[in-house]
Design goal:
With 206 residues, the chain is of the alpha/beta class. Helices cover 39% and strands 16% of the residues. It has one domain: Glycerol-3-phosphate (1)-acyltransferase (3-Layer(aba) Sandwich), CATH 3.40.1130. It is built from six helices and seven strands. A seven-stranded mixed beta sheet has the order 1-7-6-2-5-3-4, with helices on both faces. Helix 1 packs across helix 2 and helix 5 crosses helix 6.
């Protein structure tokens, strides 16, 4: 993982700055060490590489299992990037354990709370699943907003377009339990809070 990931990271960092006028805001908000979850909006197939390129820590992304349907994809995603496959309609115990193990080892997990690519730059409601992961993990969550990726390799712009991209990392969020709050209610509250922080970053970037 180290060799493939680091080579790809360097390659993307150079290409994105040359071709996409790649701009990074707030990377200092991502803790330099220790477990953390990066929670980003999602509009393009490029988003995982964009989120990872903006910082210098390796990120283990949760990716829909359909992306692992070809041998070459499995090699890149699993063996190279160590991505964590997940069923979008079901968050099973094996996936949760995998994510918890990554965080317990002090690494970074990347998630997309919307669960799928949105249309244009409009944010979708967050799924309760991320709230469950955050609640179980008890680690800081850094909200992330990507501006411009909706115009390249997205549902509205399917081709690779060379457009300016800005990525903003917000301040880490810590969540505490609310007495008497039911499980699903809490999970959705956590997810809604994360999406609200991503929305703030969107307004800040403009």
């Amino acid at each position: 993982m180290i060799l493939i990931y680091d080579i790809a990271h360097l390659m993307f960092a150079v290409l994105y700055r040359l071709l996409l006028s790649f701009r990074v805001i707030g990377s200092e908000n991502v803790p330099k060490t220790g477990p953390v979850i990066l929670a980003s909006n999602h509009a393009s197939y490029l988003d995982p590489t964009l989120v990872g390129t903006g910082i210098w820590r390796r990120v283990r992304f949760v990716a829909k299992e359909e992306l692992f349907d070809r041998a070459w994809k499995r090699f890149i995603l699993f063996h190279g990037w160590k991505a964590i496959p997940i069923r979008r309609e079901k968050l099973d115990k094996a996936v949760l354990k995998n994510i918890m193990d990554v965080l317990k080892s002090g690494d970074v997990v990347g998630l997309f709370p919307e669960g799928t690519r949105g249309m244009g730059d409009k944010l979708l409601p967050g799924k309760a699943g991320i709230g469950m992961i955050v609640s179980m993990a008890g680690v800081p969550v850094v909200p992330v907003y990507i501006k411009g990726s909706d115009k390249t390799l997205s549902k509205t712009h399917e081709k690779l377009n060379l457009v300016p991209i800005t990525i903003a990392y917000g301040k880490p969020i810590e969540f505490t339990r609310v007495p008497g709050e039911a499980g699903h209610e809490r999970y959705q509250r956590v997810s809604d809070t994360v999406m609200a922080e991503i929305e703030k970053l969107k307004l800040m970037v403009g």
